[in-house]
Amino acid sequence: MAYSPQKKKMMQLVHIGKNKLKLDDGTYRAMLWQVTGKESSKDCTVAALKKVIEHMEHHGFKVTPAKKHQTKKPDAAKSKQALMDKIEALLTDGGYPWEYAQKLAKHMYKVDALTFCDGRQLRGIITALTKQQQKLAKLAAQEVTANA
């Protein structure tokens, strides 16, 4: 049986919630029956599934967005590890993913990955991230001054 994309997504969320709340099958089905009058999420409407998710959130389930395309810290030689740590700190401060630094490397040095950057190139990326951070801080300060 084919379900609408919205219903599929809601059913997935219900099952993620079941796992996160560590509900056994009997407890899960009892909760489903209590909230919707149905024994299976397949039998529920989208509105009923929303009620189930709200019920689960009330009991501690937190819906978090999917972390698609999230990259992890690239591998680096020991000689470049300190530079990679600095890049990681700047990315974290700015709220940027590793992909942002990867794109900087590609844009600035035509290098496909940070792993292939040499020390000089990594220092250039650190400089770019630092300048971006300073620029944002300056704009925030100006905004505060303008609003005061």
Structural account:
The chain is mainly alpha-helical. It folds into 2 domains: 54 residues, no CATH class; 70 residues, no CATH class. Helices cover 65% and strands 0% of the residues. It contains 6 helices and no strands.
Could you name the ranges where pLDDT drops below 50 across 5 or more consecutive residues? Answer: none
Total of domains: 2
Query: What would you call the shape?
Result: elongated
Gyration radius over CA: 23 Å
What proportion of the residues is helical, as a percent range? 55-70%
Q: H/E series, N to C?
A: HHHHHH
What is the end-to-end distance?
60 Å
Question: What composes the largest sheet?
Answer: none
The overall average pLDDT, rounded, is 86
> Approximately how much beta-strand content do the residues carry?
under 5%
Helical region count? 6
Oligomer: single chain
Structure class: mainly alpha
Tell me the total number of β-strands.
0
Write the layout of secondary structure elements.
Blueprint: H1 5-20, H2 25-36, H3 46-58, H4 81-94, H5 98-109, H6 119-147
